[in-house]
Amino acid sequence: MLAIDNLKKHFGFVKAVDDVSLNIEEGEIVSIIGTNGAGKTTLVNLISGYIKPDSGRILFFDKDITYASPYVRIKLGVGRSFQLIQLFGGITVLDNVRTALFSKYGMIRRGLLSADRYSSVTEEAIKILDNFNMSDKKNLTPKGLSEGDLKILDIAIAFALKSKLLLLDEPTSGVATSDKFKVMDSIVSAIKKEGISTLIIEHDMDIVSGYSDRVVVMHEGRIMAQGKPDEIMENKEVKATVFGIVS
Amino acid sequence: MIFIALLFIPRILSIHDLMLFEYGITFAIVGLGFNLLLGYTGLLSFGHGAYFAAGAYSVAMIAKYLPQAYSLEILIPAALFFSLVLSIIFGFVCVRHTKIFFSILALSLSMLLYALLFKLYHITGGSDGLRVTLPTLFGMSFKGIRRPEFLSGTYYYFLLGMFSVSFLVMKGIVSSPFGKALQAIRDNEVRAELIGIRVRRYRLYAFMISGMFVGLGGALWTFVNGHVTADLSHWVFSGEIVYMTLLGGFGIFEGPIIGAMIFTYLKLYAMGNTQYWMFVIGATLIVLVLILPNGVAGAVSSLWTKIKLKSD
User: Is residue A144 part of a domain?
Assistant: First the structure.
């Protein structure tokens, strides 16, 4: 579904993403690992349209989206979450998700009837929150949530846009270690239910090996290795550069 | 219940107090419109006097140049139309920026209108302004009736009707999907763009609606005041709109209404008792910022929650 060909993005002399080619299949969960500065977030930014590449091509369902605006990509089904959480802090958890749904359905021009009158949208938002075990917190504002819940809500918003491809930038960073698996469990079970393809940037190897179908290792802007999680864990080159283990 | 009480106000208040109350109502409509931008879209305009002036001058100019069309049922739509046109033009420029840049742009554009109103003496009356006579309403003529009688009779109820409609329409807007989208833009414009909201376009929509409400307030105000001057588009007047919204509290829907009422009385009594009334206004502003950041309405509502929690 997603095909990246020879993608390049340089910031001055820094080759953030250098000649990267990558395919993601439908329903596949792919993790990207790599040291700081390996170009993981830049790659996600390029796919979501946050920044534009210097050269190369991004195809999404055979449609060229290399230079499409974020708006167009969202309409096509590329959703993302953020490493630094991006939420709507002044409205309730329910409204955070509901606004995304209204936007998805092109209903945000409706300006006279209360949002509560659109009960099917409200029910759908509650169902999404249910999927992420968040529906009991629907009337709180994000200020009253734990770090883990904020992460989940951030992803629930991307989820509400009915993305076919979700880009998750460090979904568990800042989450207490004891909560990490709980957070990932609710995210992955919701994703699997809908068969959404997912690209995850993650540092925690337990999470990477526990939840992904394929692992891609990036180093200095290039893809160094890819394969099944256990293969990657045994790869000597990866061990040396990413984990710093020399055997 | 409050609404029923409002119906009987002309019988309770003296004509002097009633006029003040009517000033308050017109400013309440202005506050509702202004707060759609400040409280719900996160844009602070220091130039909303311009749209107030657009509404007010629509009335005054029709009185001068098109006297045969001088009836309320034509004047109100005309005021809405001209304030809409002005807010589309000015808004188109302003929404390209946010924060202080937005505020200053809005301010400068309103001062541009001020300069026009001030300099084009033969058309707008310049600093003398224009006189506003009593209009007709659905063929009813108020000839021979003095302004105080007009204000305490038909016009009060007309004003109350317009206020109720504005209140309900604005309440609908802020709780609608459109209103939620505006709040999403206020809270996080980056993410708003990434859930598919065209941020700039929606800011302009908010600006237009806001401008129309303020223009309506301006038009209704002229009949109470009887006179319009270029000062309405001056930034000092725009500052008063900002002040009354902060006074009431922009975080709460009813805040600007309460702020408008308090401000009207506060300004008059401060002006009546001291020539340093600006000092009083300034001092209350400092108190507000330091002690009541959520305004009077915010303070009352948080006090109310505390009492409720205790009694539970």
Answer: yes
Residues A106-119: pLDDT tens digits? 888 887 888 888 88
CA distances to A64, A72, A80, A97, A224 from A24, rounded to whole Å, are: 15, 20, 15, 27, 17
Q: Which residues of A touch B168 (CB under 8 A)?
A: none
Determine the distance in angstroms separating the CA of A227 from the nearest CA of chain B, rounded to an integer: 31
For A181, the domain range is 27-50+81-243
Count of domains in chain A?
1
- Point out the residue among A80, A88, A116 whose CB comes nearest to the CB of B183: A88
Tell me, yes or no, whether A61 lies in a domain: no
Contact A91/B at CB under 8 A: yes
Structure tokens, B248: 């009431």
A66 lies in a domain? no
CB contact under 8 A, B177 and A70: no
pLDDT in tens, B28-70: 999 999 999 999 999 999 999 999 999 999 998 888 888 888 8
Kindly determine whether residue B196 and residue A74, on different chains, have CB atoms separated by under 8 Å.
yes
* Contact (CB<8Å) B187/A89: yes
The structural domains of chain B, with segments of one domain joined by +, span 2-234
Distance of alpha carbon B144 from the chain centroid? 30
- Average pLDDT of A71-96? 84
Contact B241, B230 (CB under 8 A): no
Q: What CATH code is carried by the domain that includes residue A93?
A: 3.40.50.300
Is A9 within a domain?
no
- A69 has a chain B CB within 8 A of its CB: no
Name residue A90's beta-bridge partners.
none
Report the 10 Å Cβ neighbour count for B52. Answer: 32
